[in-house]
Amino acid sequence: KDIQALTFVLFGATGDLAKRKLFPALYNLFLAEKLPNSFSVIGLGRREWSHEFFHSKIEESLRTYARKDVQEDSLQDFLNHFQYSPLDVTDKSAYKRLQTHIEDREIELNIPGNRLFYLAVDPNLVEVITENLHASGLNQTSGWRRLVVEKPFGTDLKSAQQLNKKLSEAFDEMEIYRIDHYLGKPMVQNLASLVFANPALASLLDLKQIANVQITASETVGVETRAAYYDNAGAIRDMVQNHLLQLVMMTALHLPENITAEEIGNKKIEVIESLKPIEKEDAHKHVIRGQYRAGEVLDTPVIGYLDEPGVPENSMNDTYFAARLHIDNPVWGEIPFYIRTGKRLDQKSTRIVFEFKKQKRALIPAEELVPNLLTLEINPSEGISLKLNIKEPSSERFKPTCINFKTNTDDQSDAYELLLFDAMLGNATFFAHWDEVELSWKWIQPLLEAFENNLLPLHTYPAGSTGPEAADELLKSNNFKWW
Ligand code: BG6
């Protein structure tokens, strides 16, 4: 299927996301000839930029961040699709001028009224922009209309519900595309086909043989310059409510049966609905929160969270989160899911590990064997590995051995490229739908309250480590360890 001619109305065109992700993604799609010929991008921002200055900024972004080298002979053709218009998004009357601008371009480029509104803006502005799009009539077009919103989607259950109510006054659920860039990662998108195309893998993942599932999203970076946002969000809102719970849903839904892309949405809801609630009084039994101290990350000394610029000296914010979850349905029954994420850890890695049950028959001393592991590496490298016990003929002993497959990611589309393409095409499979988002907030809400009321300790961990020791204890109590 091809993308139809459209206008891409980009709020936040002077911002960081546009520069780092959106322009390069559009450019890669352009080079791959996936964009329609009639394609208009109207960049909007507070600053008084000219079209030419806007073009120079886009060019700079492509030269810095695009996956492919800039093709000098077609660069201007690409840039010609872009125009800039200064806009105070809170000024209702300014949207009329914007409407004229969009319509003029639609006529000039022969674009039917297909409009994609992309809100790459401060979350506080999402409501007012949507309201003004609606009030000005900009979203009433003769073609299709879509709204793409970035995370965070609300800051708790109530604010997410309020935000959604506002959005649904202007757009139908089918027209709202909530970006979760973890759903754009190729390995996550390929989970379905991996199991579908490989019956061997599917039978390997026979749930009777699985001891636990571990999902890790560890980062080496600290809070960077985002303290104003991050100190209020914490790992729980920044990573868990969205990315990690989406990974839990995506992992759980593909087993044990083959499902089609159309079924993904409903299956995800089934999974998140079955996620056993953790009451706030019980949070301390199942959840570990942590904050990094000074330490060394990849051989470089770094300061602790409390010394980071913009972080209040007594901040109780979580930069690490780990939890034990249960998907309370007949399929997953007693198999625990362990999830963890944190900043300033020892490595950058997003992965899903299936740990298999140990051999019960005592022919071989248990301590000689490691559990078999199937690991799906999502990021930054991508691949599959299987850890087995292989006997070394010379020593008669077993040695853990990994069978490794790494995907060649050199020429691979990145998450934003895949997601922008889908949004322009009208395929919402890999976006977060309201029910999932709401159920994720419902599950998280008691934990937010437990954090707020300090019902569980805030552990610290040295930067460059694998996280607080308490997180190891969480698994030790079930005779497991993190992989
Ligand atoms: C973002 C978070 O959503 O995801 C960041 O706001 C985090 O804090 C980032 O660093 C991680 O994404 P990735 O793709 O690098 O794993």
TrEMBL record:
Catalysis: reaction(s): D-glucose 6-phosphate + NADP(+) = 6-phospho-D-glucono-1,5-lactone + NADPH + H(+)
GO cellular component, as recorded: cytosol
Binding residues annotated for NADP(+), in chain numbering: 12-19, 46, 88-89, 151
Enzyme Commission number(s): 1.1.1.49
All copies of domain Glucose-6-phosphate dehydrogenase NAD-binding, residue ranges: 9-190
Pathway(s) this gene product operates in, as recorded in its UniProt entry: Carbohydrate degradation; pentose phosphate pathway; D-ribulose 5-phosphate from D-glucose 6-phosphate (oxidative stage): step 1/3
Keywords: Carbohydrate metabolism, Glucose metabolism, NADP, Oxidoreductase
Active-site feature positions: 243 (proton acceptor)
Domain Glucose-6-phosphate dehydrogenase C-terminal: 194-483
Function recorded in the entry: Catalyzes the oxidation of glucose 6-phosphate to 6-phosphogluconolactone.
Stated family: Belongs to the glucose-6-phosphate dehydrogenase family.
Protein name per UniProt: Glucose-6-phosphate 1-dehydrogenase
